[in-house]
Amino acid sequence: MAAAAVMASGISFGQEAGQTELRNLNNLVVRHHAAVRGARGGQLAAARKQAAADIEKRAAALAALIETDPDAALGMAFSEDLAAELKTAFPESAARIETRRSWTGTLESAVEDNADHTGSRTVHRLRSGGRTFMVYPGNAVQIAASGLVKVTGIEVNGNVAASALTATATTTAINGVSGQQAVLTILVNFPGYKLPTAVDAEYMKGVLYGNSWSTKQNTPDFSVDDFWQQNSDGAASAPFSLSKQVGPFLLASNYNVDSKGASFCDYITMRDAVIAAADPSVTFTAYNRVVIVMPNNGACTWTGVSSIGYWSLPSADGTISASFSWLRADQLATRLSGVQLATHELGHGMGLNHARTREYPGPPRIPLGAIGAAGTLVEYGDNFSTMGTGAGFYGAQHAQQILGWLTPSNYTQVQTAGTYAVSAYETRPATGLVKALRVLRDVASNSWLWIEYRANSGIYDGTLGSQVSFGALIHYEDATTGAYTGLLDFTPSTTSFLDPALVAGQTWTDPYSNLSITANGVAGGVLNVGVSYGSAVCTPGSPTVTLSPSNPTVSAGGSTSITVTVKNNNAAACPIFAYGLTAAQPAGFSGTFSATSLSLAGGATGTAILTETAGSTTGTFALSVTATDSGTGSKSGSTSTNITVAAVCSTSSPTLTLSPANTSLLAGASATLTMSVKNNNSSVCTASAFALTAVQPAGFSGTFSVASLSLAAGATGTATLTEKAGSTTGTFALSVTATATDSATGGKSATGSANFTVTAACAAASPSVSLSPAITSIAAGASAAFTVTVKNNNSSACATAGFNLTAVQPTGFSGTFSASSVSGVASGASTSITITEKAGSTAGTFSLNVTATDTARSTSAGTGTAAITVTTCTLAAPVVTLSPATATITAGGSAAYVVTVKNANSAACGAGTFTLAATQPTGLTGSFSVAMLTLAPGTSGTSKLTEKSGTTKGTLVTTVTATSGSLKATATATTIVQ
Fold first, then answer.
1. How far apart are CA 776 and CA 743, in angstroms?
2. DSSP-derived 3-state class of residue 540
3. SS3 assignment, position 13
4. DSSP letters along 372-439, please?
5. Alpha-carbon gap, residue 287 to 265, rounded angstroms
6. What was the pLDDT predicted at 730?
7. 173 alpha-carbon distance from chain centroid
8. Which residues contact 734 (CB under 8 A, 6 or more apart)?
9. Can you give the three-state secondary structure of 733-786, one letter per residue?
10. Is a pLDDT exceeding 80 seen at residue 572?
11. Can you tell me the distance from the alpha carbon of 719 to that of 25, in angstroms, rounded to the nearest whole number?
């Protein structure tokens, strides 16, 4: 069966022609605008009338391009500023000039499936503010299902090109895809067209619920209810007890022409008429699936239509929340075709999109292309799913990700090597059975392969080609997939997708990653699959380049900045690549990159700014930017945007800078900042006034030198702001804003900031002075040295200090400082000098006072004190002792005595010399170890006296005398000789 093939990239001839036509019309409208700028009176009216026809043509061309290529339309639409100025310049044509804005409303999305299975059309209708818009999403917009949304984009003639879409309260299909589905079937006839005789309520009962509920039997007993129960393993069903079939109702119109009489399939108006006709017979709020069976009216060229998810619609019973599906009765010729079409359209109602094929034709033809490559997408190409062109079950990816019919135990997510068992997808019951594998291909691109085993059994999968029963049926999931599935062909030697399985015994090794998959064999209804991951592979991919904004407006000779974003699509195993940036300039333009090369790791994104200066010619011009791997030059990516040159005031936010950016000051002190404001409007704009405001830090107060600056386009002006700090210390942020106060710039503003660090004011304190030693004693006329320590007690906010040193001498003393002043002493720090004091002749205790005076503050001084005791010399006889006092020896032996002498003079006398002498009795001879001792006052010294006896026995007494000058003293020792 034929299917629609669409390349994932590239622009068709028709799209190129549409862009060329729109570009030419853009140029005409811009020139019309230049013509009316200086026109007055009759000339102005004539110029506006002449422009109206071209504006009308341009609106039609832009609306048509929105339908075929919304991204191109977004890129060629006028900027918001230019569109607003054009509406002012051409008030009679304002409704035909696009609007950039956001709309909030109810989105009704539907898929129209062509009757010949060569393609489909997805339509999105937005009901907002009493109007209905046709929404065409750009490539960056994913629409999951119908519901309440916020759409951002451009609109003209009722067509919206969406650049962003956010669901605000979505009634998604997933809300009702499990459990019992309540299906309301409504049969209708038109005045000029009737249902086929065979397609009646009984026939539809058979299609939906099977032989048990219909008088029209079929073998096999195909039905939607049975299909869902088997596919979901009982998780979803369509019980007859919850269903109802009504009609056929004869409607009042054929719904096959528009208001102008042209052929048009108006199934939306038909839907409202069906609801009105059936309302008396049914309670709509009891059903979550509504199926309308209608005859072929000659204009509805599709086989069926369905909402994507639920629609919320009014009825006499209240708000209907249900999916709506239209089935053309002539497409229900057999029970199987009826079930296939019904499960397909109701699948859309559950949120599923088509089961596509993804082909990589090469040459050579391969199962799967490079990471990120979409390949050739064939809309209905999957012959093994009812969401394609077959009658098989919804694929595992649909069943798990959208329907939730595969529980966590029914599929295995594979990220490590091993052998995995996959039970036949048709196996029932499936409790605890693994029916699919989700195998990681590449982390950076979040790409996976879904592996199933279809045993070609049962009344549904039994209708499929037999080749899949010999191996693995594999689908691919990546950023391209969305709500679709993508079947891969692992028999690339043929171009048919009827033999896509990786059959048992075969191994596929991914040439773009480290993944290998082996279909090991089938046994007992189970396929064993081997998964291995080799060494990480560097797979270079072409980078993705995006430009923002699209179609900025600039005056002739003016400049605009475009953000260039480059994504490295290499595998994570690749080294960092450097991408050189080049631009294909429009004629007369010049451009400069902020960076001509971006170094990016695999999967990473980087940006550069391209500043484009326009030429003198007005019009819309295409700019192309290319990023090329500068290492190998083999991978590059390009994209384009548009720049419109017009004689129009292009307004931009001003630039505001504050200098200095960081200031330190004392609490309560003031500092002055210089503000620089630049008017960035294009040269054709008039001067703008910029009001200056400041958000003060707590406790601060500020004064501007001027309240505002009036600046011509492109000019820069300055003002000053004097800020007085409060009493609190810390770092504070000041914010200053310059806001355009004239209507031309619409209040555009810029903000600059600066920081203040506030420190405490200097608190002076008297220094601390100490002398060491604090107490000392010296002889009259002698000298003593003292260490003088000075501590700076000023607060930390003070600068370093210096101190002068002075001494108050005791009477008769004289002193000398090692330094009479010190400098550079930090707050809290100490420094030391020495003072040497020479005593007079008078004995007594005296005080020495040393004062340190802050050299910057004469009143800040501190004093330290030391006590000095002066003594004079008092002579006294020494003290002599012998030890032992008595010694006993034998005749001819020796005795040893320790002679101790103490100098009893006062301390002022200095050291004395003492001479030792011994008076020996007959029979003893003796000698001193030391005959003379030099001793300081109050100290003692010793000598050894050895006495040797003769033959005389008896008690013998020796006298020892210590003599110093006129002073002497004696001591005796007794020697007993036996």
1. 88
2. coil
3. helix
4. T---EEETT--TTSTTTTS-PPPPHHIIIIIS--S-GGGEEEE-S-EEEEEE-TT-SS-TT---EEEE
5. 26
6. 92
7. 31
8. 658, 673, 694, 695, 696, 697, 700, 702, 723, 753, 754, 755, 756
9. EEEEEEEECCCCCCCCEEEEEEEEEEECCCCCCCCEEEEECCEEEEECCCEEEE
10. no
11. 46
How long a stretch of residues is the chain? Answer: 978
419 pLDDT band, cuts 50/70/90, is very high
Whether the bond into 549 is cis, omega within 30 of 0: yes
Which tokens belong to 4? 């629609």
Q: What are the pLDDT digits (tens) for 305-360?
A: 999 999 999 999 999 999 999 999 999 999 999 999 999 999 999 999 999 999 99
Long-range contacts of 358-362 (CB under 8 A, 24+ apart): 358/476, 358/480, 358/486, 358/487, 358/488, 359/5, 359/489, 359/497, 361/495
Cβ pair 351, 357 in contact under 8 A: no
- Residues 635-649: b if buried by 16+ CB within 10 A, e if exposed: bbbebbbbbbbbbbb
Secondary element (H or E) of residue 219? none
Non-local CB neighbours of 591 within 8 Å, separated by 6+ positions: 583, 585, 610, 611, 612, 613, 623
pLDDT tens for each residue of 866-911: 999 988 888 899 999 999 999 999 999 999 999 999 999 887 788 8
Is the N-terminal amide bond of 363 cis, ω within 30° of 0? yes
Q: How far is CA 466 from CA 469, 501, 963, in A?
A: 6, 10, 138
> How far is the C-alpha of 944 from the C-alpha of 708, rounded, in Å?
106
Largest CA distance in the chain: 174
User: Cβ distance 757 to 731 under 8 Å?
Assistant: yes
Confidence at residue 38, expressed as pLDDT on a 0 to 100 scale? 67
pLDDT of residue 11: 45
Q: Is the model's pLDDT at 118 over the cut of 80?
A: no
